[in-house]
């Protein structure tokens, strides 16, 4: 298959757009990057690309695909790889169902508390959100990372995979924020969060630490910039 012509419309501060970067890097696909300035109204040409005005969008051989989960899934389907097994085998269909459930649990039971912590108006609110976040990981995520789920596979990634899967593609940019925005200078997450995760959800902590160390996950990550801009944006929104 000839290499596709891919244009990625993105912004490096956006965790949703970041998903597409991880997928493209894991798949080894070349792409042209167009940075969309999200601090200004979208220009008419971009609203023609994506009428919602959001990033990410991709142009894939001239066809536009939007929404980060759909973009990532499309790329993984169009370029079969370690990210996802084929859907037309029993094991592949099961892996896809397990990844989909894991990602759903992460985004419905954990990430809302991360956002609540980022938006917290006081230290007490932040501690409450932190406790809810950890409880969500404990109840919903930690059991899905138990070795008994992995059918004898012992790799560090989801399902005991030796390489990243679509589960890490879809969660990695949020793991970076969850693990690395607790520094006091940002004041965005409880400083105790990494330690509490280590104590109460050690499998999750190990999996998340390994995931954020992967080059495909962190090559566009700039903690200082994300921390500072997130703080500024939340302060402006709170006024
Ligand atoms: N559901 C969308 C969410 C994307 C999204 O919210 N992107 C934000 C940046 S992080 C955006 O483009 N915001 C522009 C705006 O709201 O004007 C996806 O997963 O792609």
From TrEMBL:
One of its GO terms (cellular component) is cytoplasm. Residues 92-238 form the GST C-terminal domain. InterPro entries: Glutathione-S-Trfase_C-like, Glutathione-S-Trfase_C_sf, Glutathione_S-Trfase, Glutathione_S-Trfase_N, GST_Omega/HSP26, Thioredoxin-like_sf. This is GST N-terminal domain-containing protein. It comes from the Eukaryota. Pfam families: GST_N_2. Residues 4-83 form the GST N-terminal domain.
């Amino acid at each position: 298959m000839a290499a596709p012509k891919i244009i990625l419309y993105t912004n490096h501060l956006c965790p949703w757009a970041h998903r597409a970067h991880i997928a493209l890097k894991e798949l080894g696909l070349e792409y042209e990057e167009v940075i969309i300035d999200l601090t200004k109204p979208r220009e008419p040409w971009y609203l023609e690309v994506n009428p919602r005005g959001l990033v990410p969008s991709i142009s894939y051989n001239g066809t536009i695909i939007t929404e980060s989960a759909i973009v990532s899934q499309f790329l993984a389907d169009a370029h079969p790889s370690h990210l996802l097994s084929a859907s037309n085998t029993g094991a592949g269909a099961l892996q896809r169902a397990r990844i989909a459930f894991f990602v759903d649990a992460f985004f419905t039971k954990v990430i809302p508390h991360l956002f609540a912590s980022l938006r917290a108006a006081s230290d007490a609110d932040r501690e409450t959100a932190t406790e809810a976040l950890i409880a969500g990981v404990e109840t919903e995520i930690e059991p899905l990372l138990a070795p008994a789920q992995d059918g004898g596979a012992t790799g560090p990634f989801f399902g005991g995979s030796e390489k990243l899967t679509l589960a890490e593609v879809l969660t990695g940019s949020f793991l970076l924020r969850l693990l690395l925005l607790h520094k006091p200078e940002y004041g965005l997450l409880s400083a105790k969060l990494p330690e509490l995760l280590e104590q109460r959800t050690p499998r999750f902590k190990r999996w998340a630490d390994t995931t954020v160390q992967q080059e495909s996950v962190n090559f566009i990550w700039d903690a200082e910039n994300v921390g500072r801009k997130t703080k500024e944006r939340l302060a402006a929104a709170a006024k």
